[in-house]
C-alpha cells in the first residue's frame, strides 16, 4: 500500500481545517437565477445527448443500440457469472444505475456522519479515486487525519476524507482494498474481541462507493435521482449501466426527494461586506442540476468536464474580467483549489436521509449474519 509521508502533522491539521473553518455567511434556501453568460452556450454534448436530446441525438441513440446489447451482456456476465466473493466484514454498497450525478458522495458523507453519531467508529470508505494522478491502493485518511494530497486521492475521496472521521481508501481493485481491510480489522478484532462483544458498534464497517456491479456479499443500496435520462437504454444509447428494472434487484432502493433529500446552502469563505457577484466554476457531472440552487447574481458560468482540474490563472482572470467578488463552486470542486488563495463561496450540497432508511441500514449492521 502506498502512503504519502511528506506531509507533517501540522499540514494534516491545516488541510482538515481549510475545509471547515472561515465560513461567514449562510444563505438558505437559494432561489433559481436568471440566465447568465457561460463558456458553453449550450449543454455539453454528453448532457444534451443523454438528458435533452435533439433529433440527431435520438437517431444516434437508436443506431447505437446493438452496442448497448453487447455492453449489457458483458455487464450481466460479470455480475452474475463470476464467483461471489465473501468477506468477514459488514459491507454497505452505495450505488446507482445511471452513470453519475445521483448524489453518492454526499450520501456516503451523510451516512458516515450518522453512523459516527450512533457510536460506530471503525468505518472504512472505499472508492476508485477516479481521475487521481496515482495508482494502486492508497489510504487517504485514518480516522479523519489526511495522509495524502488531492492529486493522489482524487476529488471525491478527498471530500470524503475532509468531511468524515472515517478511514478513506482509494483503489482501482475493490477486492484488494477489501482484503487489506479484512486483514487489518481481523487483527484488531482478535485484540479487542471483548470490547466488540460488549460494544457492537465497534465492529468494522465498509462503505463501498459505486459498487453495485461487484459480486460481493454486501448490502446493496441504489440511489435514484430525480433527474432521469431521456432514454431507458444502457450505455452507449442511454445513460444507464443496468436496465431500470434492476432497481428491484437490491436491498434498498432509495428515491431522491422521498427517501433522501438534497439541501443546498451558500457559504462564504471570506467576509463579504459588499454585494457579492459570482463566477460559477464547476467540474461535476450534469452541472445543469445546480441551476435551481444558484444565487441570482451569478455573472458568468465556467464549466469543465467531470473531475477536471482548475487553473489558478484562468479563475483569477475571470474574477477580474467580470468584476466578480467570489468564485462559486461545490465542495467537490473546492478540494482541488484550496491552495489558490482566491475569494471563494461554496455551494454546500448536503443530503438528509429519512430515519426509516437509517433504521433499515442499522438493522443490517446489528445483525450477526454477514
Automatic annotation (TrEMBL):
InterPro entries for this protein: LpxK, P-loop_NTPase
Presence of keyword Kinase: yes
EC id: 2.7.1.130
Keywords on record: ATP-binding, Kinase, Lipid A biosynthesis, Lipid biosynthesis, Lipid metabolism, Membrane, Nucleotide-binding, Transferase, Transmembrane, Transmembrane helix
Pathway: Glycolipid biosynthesis; lipid IV(A) biosynthesis; lipid IV(A) from (3R)-3-hydroxytetradecanoyl-[acyl-carrier-protein] and UDP-N-acetyl-alpha-D-glucosamine: step 6/6
Catalytic activities: a lipid A disaccharide + ATP = a lipid IVA + ADP + H(+)
Summary of the function given for this chain in its UniProt record: Transfers the gamma-phosphate of ATP to the 4'-position of a tetraacyldisaccharide 1-phosphate intermediate (termed DS-1-P) to form tetraacyldisaccharide 1,4'-bis-phosphate (lipid IVA).
Protein name in UniProt: Tetraacyldisaccharide 4'-kinase
Source organism: Helicobacter trogontum
Amino acid at each position: 500500500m502506498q502512503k504519502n509521508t511528506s506531509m507533517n502533522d501540522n499540514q494534516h491539521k491545516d488541510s482538515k481545517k481549510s475545509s471547515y473553518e472561515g465560513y461567514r455567511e449562510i444563505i438558505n434556501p437559494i432561489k433559481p437565477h436568471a440566465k447568465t453568460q457561460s463558456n458553453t452556450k449550450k449543454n455539453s454534448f454528453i448532457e444534451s445527448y443523454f438528458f435533452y436530446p435533439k433529433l440527431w441525438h435520438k437517431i444516434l441513440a437508436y443506431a447505437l443500440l446493438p452496442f448497448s446489447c453487447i455492453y449489457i451482456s458483458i455487464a450481466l456476465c460479470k455480475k452474475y457469472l463470476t464467483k461471489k466473493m465473501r468477506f468477514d466484514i459488514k459491507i454497505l454498497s452505495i450505488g446507482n444505475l445511471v452513470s453519475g450525478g445521483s448524489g453518492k458522495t454526499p450520501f456516503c458523507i451523510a451516512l458516515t456522519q450518522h453512523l459516527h453519531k450512533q457510536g460506530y467508529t471503525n468505518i472504512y470508505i472505499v472508492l476508485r479515486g477516479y481521475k487521481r494522478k496515482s495508482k494502486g491502493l492508497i489510504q487517504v485518511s485514518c480516522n479523519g487525519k489526511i495522509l495524502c494530497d488531492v492529486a493522489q486521492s482524487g476529488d471525491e475521496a478527498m471530500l470524503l476524507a475532509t468531511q468524515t472521521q472515517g478511514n478513506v481508501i482509494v483503489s482501482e481493485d475493490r477486492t484488494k482494498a477489501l482484503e487489506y481491510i479484512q486483514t487489518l480489522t481481523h487483527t484488531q478484532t482478535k485484540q479487542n474481541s471483548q470490547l466488540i462483544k460488549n460494544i457492537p458498534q465497534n465492529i468494522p464497517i465498509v462503505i463501498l462507493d459505486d459498487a453495485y456491479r461487484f459480486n460481493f456479499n454486501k448490502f446493496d443500496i441504489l440511489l435514484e435521482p430525480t433527474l432521469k435520462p431521456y432514454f431507458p437504454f444502457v450505455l452507449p444509447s442511454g445513460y444507464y449501466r443496468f436496465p431500470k428494472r434492476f432497481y428491484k434487484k437490491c436491498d434498498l432502493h432509495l428515491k431522491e426527494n422521498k427517501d433522501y433529500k438534497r439541501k443546498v446552502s451558500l457559504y462564504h469563505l471570506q467576509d463579504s461586506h459588499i454585494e457579492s457577484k459570482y463566477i460559477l466554476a464547476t467540474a461535476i457531472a450534469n452541472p445543469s442540476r445546480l441551476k435551481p440552487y444558484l444565487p441570482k447574481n451569478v455573472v458568468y458560468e465556467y464549466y469543465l468536464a467531470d473531475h477536471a482540474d482548475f487553473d489558478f490563472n484562468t479563475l483569477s482572470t475571470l474574477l477580474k474580467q467580470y468584476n466578480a467578488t467570489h468564485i462559486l463552486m461545490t465542495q467537490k470542486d473546492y478540494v482541488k483549489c484550496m491552495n489558490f488563495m482566491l475569494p471563494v463561496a461554496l455551494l454546500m450540497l448536503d443530503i438528509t436521509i429519512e430515519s426509516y432508511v437509517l433504521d433499515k441500514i442499522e438493522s443490517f449492521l446489528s445483525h450477526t449474519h454477514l
